[in-house]
């Protein structure tokens, strides 16, 4: 009788065991305890300084991913600079805002087609809240598509989508629908983390019809330095601690790389954070021997969006 009860208990638990989904690490062929990392430089295309520093950090440092801001004046240069890098992991950094004081850009799509993305000064708004208030989901989808198509026209084959300042993620849920819809259409992954999945996508599942939300590759952790971190402990210490204590699973570590030169100083004028000096510190750390040694000492494996995009 006891053996029969054990057998019944086992059979009752068997379906729940079988239904446990694989982690993203396991889907990629790793164990769920492996530490997997994408070291991702945002904002390539924003400036010449940003372009050359980012590419240098990829070729000589540990940065292994980037994404391009197509509305910016220096985006077309990227197509020329990466011609000898056919396997570069480069996505489209969907850009709906323009936060700088003296450096301005507008949408890639015609302003007449996306008027809700154009502020009173004729350029994109400075913040995501203004975008969410003024830009319709249809306008945002049109602009997203225009940015992807513009990248394709300069020879970039995007490996993924992500979002400048998170405006796609934390604007209207419909923006996220278009984001995932376009990722599916172009056959590439879009960056989604657990907070987006559980806080926005699943609660609004009816909006996401036509998208297999259960099969979206969800990044386990997204790490980025904050203004508080910059002021209180500094970037070098933050990145050092992060790599020493990196959790298992897939982490995307976001940084912003450029040189502290005249161009970036002028572009980021009046900013106390995210400025030329900050970006130089990012460059210095991610091209350092220290960064390489930390990856090796902590058994961290670098992966790319290209690998995630190959998942079925």
From TrEMBL:
Its cofactor is Mg(2+). Residues 1-18 form the signal peptide. InterPro entries: Glyco_hydro/deAcase_b/a-brl, YdjC-like. One of its GO terms (molecular function) is deacetylase activity. The keyword Metal-binding applies. One of its GO terms (biological process) is carbohydrate metabolic process. Coiled coil: none annotated. CDD domains: YdjC_TTHB029_like. Keywords: Carbohydrate metabolism, Hydrolase, Magnesium, Metal-binding, Signal. This is YdjC family protein. It comes from Mariniradius saccharolyticus AK6. The lineage of its organism: Bacteria, Pseudomonadati, Bacteroidota, Cytophagia, Cytophagales.
């Amino acid at each position: 009788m006891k053996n029969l009860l054990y057998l019944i208990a086992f059979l009752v638990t068997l379906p729940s065991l079988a239904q446990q989904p694989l982690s993203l690490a396991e889907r990629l062929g790793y164990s769920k305890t492996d530490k997997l990392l994408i070291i991702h430089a945002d904002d390539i295309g924003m400036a010449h300084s940003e372009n050359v520093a980012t590419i240098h950090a990829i070729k000589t440092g540990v940065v292994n991913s980037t994404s391009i801001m197509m509305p910016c004046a220096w985006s077309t240069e990227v197509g020329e600079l990466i011609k000898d890098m056919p396997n570069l992991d480069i996505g489209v950094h969907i850009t709906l805002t323009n936060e700088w004081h003296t450096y301005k850009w507008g949408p890639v799509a015609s302003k007449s087609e996306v008027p809700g993305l154009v502020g009173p000064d004729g350029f994109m708004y400075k913040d995501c809240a203004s975008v969410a208030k003024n830009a319709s989901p249809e306008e945002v989808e049109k602009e997203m598509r225009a940015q992807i198509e513009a990248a394709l026209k300069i020879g970039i084959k995007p490996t993924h989508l992500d979002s400048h300042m998170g405006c796609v993620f934390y604007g209207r849920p419909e923006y996220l629908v278009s984001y995932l819809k376009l990722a599916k259409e172009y056959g590439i992954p879009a960056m989604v983390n657990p907070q987006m999945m559980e806080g926005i996508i699943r609660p609004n599942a009816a909006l996401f019809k036509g998208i297999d939300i259960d099969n979206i590759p969800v990044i386990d952790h997204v790490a980025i330095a904050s203004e508080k971190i910059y002021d209180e402990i500094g970037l070098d210490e933050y990145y050092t601690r992060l790599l020493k204590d990196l959790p298992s699973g897939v982490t995307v570590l976001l940084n912003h790389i450029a040189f502290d030169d005249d161009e970036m100083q002028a572009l980021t004028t009046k900013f106390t954070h995210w400025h030329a000096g900050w970006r130089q510190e990012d460059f210095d750390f991610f091209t350092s021997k220290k960064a390489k040694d930390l990856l090796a000492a902590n058994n961290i494996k670098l992966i790319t969006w290209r690998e995630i995009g190959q998942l079925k």
